Amino acid sequence: MAIASRVTKRALSTFAAAKLPEEAIAATTAAAVPLASSAPSASSERTTKQVLQFEDTGRLFAGEPTSALLRTLAALQALSVGPLVDVATAALRSPAVAGSALGRAAARATAYRHFCAGETADEAAAVVRRLWRGGMGGILDYGIEDAEDSDSCDRNAAGFISAVDVAAALPPGSASVCIKITALCPIALLEKTSDLLRWQKKHPSFNLPWKTHSFPILSESSPLHLTASEPPALTAEEERELQLAHERLLAVCARCAEHGIPLLVDAEYATVQPAIDYFTFVGALAFNDGAGEQRPIVHGTFQAYLRDARDRLEAMVRSAERERVRLGLKVVRGAYLTRETRLAAALGVPSPVHGSIQETHDCYNGCAAFLLDRVRRGSASVMLATHNVESGQLAAARAQELGIPKGDRNLQFAQLMGMADGLSLSLRNAGFQVSKYLPYGPVEQIIPYLIRRAEENRGLLSASSFDRQLLRKELVRRVKTAVAGREWSELVEPCEGRVGSTVPVKVKLGQGRVEG
Known about the structure:
50% of the residues lie in helices and 11% in strands. The protein is an alpha/beta fold. It has a domain of 323 residues: Alpha-Beta Barrel (TIM Barrel), CATH 3.20.20.220. The strands form two sheets. Strands 1-2-3-4-5-6-7-8 form an eight-stranded parallel barrel, surrounded by six helices. Strands 9-10-11 form a three-stranded antiparallel β-sheet. Its EC number is 1.5.5.2. Belongs to the proline oxidase family. It comes from Miscanthus lutarioriparius. InterPro entries: FAD-linked_oxidoreductase-like, Proline_DH_dom, Proline_oxidase.
């Protein structure tokens, strides 16, 4: 069974367009395609240099025990059964089920085991060590989000700082830490702050006295319609709470800077994303020194499924270069599609998400190429987080074309634990820096994350289809090898005699024997 590794002509044209950073990629008129295809197209008309190889699954999965491959295939196959996933996610969304001991036990034994690194930081650290021995790193994600009050935010900040301390005790370069701003600032305040930032974008003279920087976080193509009327100003208490959130974030950043641990700030949903970007650049302006050669500490996240992603990216890069800030960015496709679509429909406004998966692919590939050029210039650090084989192949080839050393810590690739292992291993085998995203924490705390992963892998044409194909091919190969080995062992018998004998075996031929 051949594993396609060809790259579409369309995707190549997207990468070519990105060589001119300030030019927008030409608008696409392609019809929408199913939302899950992550494998390269078999009908490609043109190929790029094949930096990543998937044909030899024996080499790809070398060192991976068969039991682990079987467990992974079983989990991904179960997640591909749409009705089963629908029932499971409905159960996880039910407080009665998710809050029960039986519900937690069921989640722990299934999706949690596959997608998560454990309940404690020490368990997650053990996974990082195992990955490091295998040539990859880990991203520690204390899986908490959506804090409701200041006390929760304080506890969450302490948890993030603990994660940094755990990362600092691991082998140098093996770990980074991921956080969510929704865990450091109450959700209601983030929503109100985002409304105010959107309103100021529409009305530049609108004064925000608490705003500490003018880094661009919105563009004309951003979903400004989410704020339809002038929002009320922050109260004195809200401004104080906003300042406390700043202090929590800066405390986490400072601990990362102390130990040289990269900090990745996750993107979230559109109603709070402006405030998240605002906070991210508070940290970046304080800790990312553009004059040095070290990898920046604070990395923001861009979601390529958003229509305004490319416009905002270019504006941020230009501003960072003017301010002499070393930009750190993680590029993802986006994980809140269902939420964004439902909200837009409920409000009767256009969705902030691209109209087709192909437009998202084009945007991701264009943003990746744009940022790879900045890595070559030494002005940015980039983590390309993707499960899409075509995007991985294109980015790897482009990095090689630009002459970016494969050991350059300013270019990283990343995939989630339990997903796209074939792509992770192929990138590692090609010499690139690769990390797996490792959420950890109590089961009930991780449930929102598990629901997103279940939805992402739902259906036979889901994001995991290429991985399932690779796993089946390798398992079949191992079975054939084992059968052939058993047949040979029956064919060849040991000969009694001392070690080093020139006649070590007796070989069966048909019904008779030929003796040495």
